[in-house]
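Hi P.,

Sorry for the delay on this. The queue was packed all week, but I finally got your sequence through. Input first:
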Amino acid sequence: MDLEEKKFRDAEKLLHQSGYTLTELMMASSRYNSSLLMVSNEDNEKCKVLYNEIKKGKLTRKQKGQKLEELTSILFEKSVENLFDIYRNCRTSTNEIDLLIRWTENARLSGINNAFPCFGESFLAECKNYDGSVSVTFVGKFCSLMSVTNTNFGIMVSWDGVSGRTKWNDSKGLIKKIALHESKYIIVIDKNDLKQICDRKQNLFSLIYDKYVALKEEIDYETYIVKHEAEDCMI
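Then the structure:
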């Protein structure tokens, strides 16, 4: 038995002794902000570089959007290797999706996908390059795009977040309404969240888990959905 296999067998033994299944370990790791779900030091440095480039504010809107996409892709691809397949810039006949994220076959066969049932079979991530917070109009369109792609979970990466504080007719209020009425959950990740991840104070999955639970606990309903131009088209 070589050194690498011995390390694996030791870890495997500890896992069995703890009483955890692999799926349960993943669930607990997300809930308790485990370092197991953080990117490697090398990938974390890449994330920091991208974060600082965006923070300087010297990029065009297109460049800013591309940097956010790249940063988000690294976080999902490298937090746990071989967990997700990432499809960038997927097109419908009328619209482009920044990131379509699906469980890998290995993740499904191993049952790890059951650790995050909110994700479903696949989910969307949109990286917005706006100067300022994302408006209520785009939130409604994003919900409609989720319907087009038959997804119930979406992540909106917006440097300045979304508009609103407590009003039900702003972006944050609409996200709550969508959760209750449509059973579609939109999680917003902003610059402060990204900094927490880059500073290794929180892993991506713990952040998502906390935001998802908070959204489910504070939802209310009122119809306010803007039709997306891709709603009549399927991928």
